[in-house]
Amino acid sequence: MALTPDNISAIAHLARLGVEPEDLAPLAADLSSVLDLVEQLQAIDTEAVEPMAHPASASLWLRDDEVTETDQRDTLQAPAPETQDGYFLVPRVIE
């Protein structure tokens, strides 16, 4: 598909883009080559190609939710200067 500088100017106006007049011809050539590539890709026969897996259709491999470690909260909080109800107490830093 060949775009003209007039096409590019109209597209730029619709997209509210400022394109200098001297940039219209090179931009038209570049966009035309991109559209030609898209046309080539669309011409490929993909009837016999199976779709690839999609992450949304995959099932998650989760392990069973089992306790694997013992409760060591008291041991781990023993060196702390202050604790209350299983929480570390720290000085207030925000007034």
Q: Residue ranges: pLDDT <50 for 5 or more in a row?
A: none
Mean pLDDT: 91
Largest β sheet strand count, sense and barrel closure: 2 strands, antiparallel
Give the beta-strand count: 2
Q: Radius of gyration over alpha carbons?
A: 32 Å
The amount of beta strand, in percent, is: under 5%
Kindly state the percentage of residues in helix: 25-40%
Distance between the termini: 65 Å
Order of strands across the main sheet? 1-2
SS-based structural class?
mainly alpha
- Oligomeric form of this entry? single chain
One letter per element, helices H and strands E, the order comes to HHHEE
What's the number of helices? 3
Shape: elongated
Short description:
The chain has 95 residues and is mainly α. Helix content is 36%, strand content 4%.
Fold and architecture overview:
The relative contact order is 0.08. Strands 1-2 form a two-stranded antiparallel sheet. α1 (5-14) packs across α2. It is elongated and about 75 Å long. The mean pLDDT is 91. It is mainly alpha-helical and 95 residues long. A hairpin with a 2-residue loop joins β1 and β2. It has three helices and two strands, in the order αααββ.
